[in-house]
Design a protein that fits this description.
The protein is of the alpha/beta class. It has eight helices and eight strands; from the N terminus they run H-H-H-E-H-E-H-E-E-H-E-E-H-E-H-E.
């Protein structure tokens, strides 16, 4: 499940119930033009410069999927919440995009392969992130890449996955790993943030 689900440590959270208000957070709905432009610029730098097939895991309401589609890519989104998937389908109606209800760790895409696996704020919450990374690698075509947006959130009881741990997990998965720190760009979040937020682009 995508975006700012990071503060919830209860796997039983009802994301269908949260779907209607999910896009109210600046970096969820990307309704503010400056926030939207900031994410569009970052995404453009992380994705290939030519049209490709993108698998957006934990796609939520499809905000990043929409940015990718607007940049000419073909998108398949997966989320465990049917209500989130319904909103994503509506948001990308008429575009080259498909959305499936399923588990981000084991997406129901059959034999289909992709040029990019895009995942935002999902990996940290999975019971076995290393296993998920290995599985996602198998969903990539030769020369494909993982784009992973993660962080560590909260001061009292922080949750998340630190960049150092994620890059260590990628040692056996990817040939080239680049970490891009995101905490210092308030436009991405609609406000200044002090916690650890970053993106990893990993070529496999």
């Amino acid at each position: 499940m995508a975006n700012h689900r990071e503060f919830d440590t209860d796997a039983r959270m009802d994301w269908d119930a949260e779907a209607a208000s999910f896009d109210e957070e600046p970096d969820h709905g990307l309704r503010d033009p400056e926030v939207r432009a900031a994410w569009a610029d970052r995404l453009r730098s992380w994705l290939p410069g030519h049209a490709c097939d993108i698998l957006d895991l934990g796609c939520g309401t499809g905000s990043l999927s929409l940015l990718a589609a607007e940049q000419g890519h073909r998108v398949t989104g997966v989320d465990s919440s049917p209500a989130m998937v319904d909103l994503a389908r509506a948001k990308l109606a008429g575009r080259d995009a498909a959305f499936l209800v399923g588990d981000a760790a084991a997406p129901p895409v059959g034999e289909q392969r992709f040029d990019v696996v895009l995942v935002r704020h999902v990996l940290w919450a999975l019971p076995d992130p290393g296993r998920a990374l290995r599985h996602w690698r198998e969903l990539l075509r030769p020369g494909g890449r993982l784009v992973l947006i993660e962080g560590v959130w909260g001061a009292v009881s922080p949750v998340g996955i630190a960049a150092e741990r994620l890059t260590a997990l990628l040692d056996s998965v990817a040939a080239h790993v680049r970490v891009e720190r995101l905490s210092g760009d308030p436009l991405l979040w609609g406000r200044a943030v002090a916690d650890e937020r970053y993106a990893v682009v990993a070529a496999v």
